[in-house]
Design a protein that fits this description.
Helix content: over 70%
Organism: Neotabrizicola shimadae
Strand content: under 5%
Protein name: DUF4169 family protein
Largest sheet: none
Distance between the termini: 84 Å
Number of helices: 2
Pfam families: DUF4169
């Protein structure tokens, strides 16, 4: 006798698996490591501080 399968649950499970696979592919393709993200944020903060430090008062 065959196993009874709920088609609604099977479709949802297949969709989740496909989304997970696509997400993993995108992470490998476009993702950055934590070190790269932290470095980028630090550089952006420093650039903003430097720009604000050169602001002229009274203009």
């Amino acid at each position: 006798m065959a196993e009874i399968v709920n088609l609604r649950q099977a479709k949802k499970q297949a969709a989740r698996k496909a989304a997970r696979v696509k997400g993993d592919e995108n992470a490998a393709k476009f993702g950055r490591s934590k070190a790269e993200r932290v470095l980028q944020e630090a550089r952006a903060e420093k650039a903003a501080r430097d720009l604000d430090g050169h602001r002229r008062d009274g203009d």
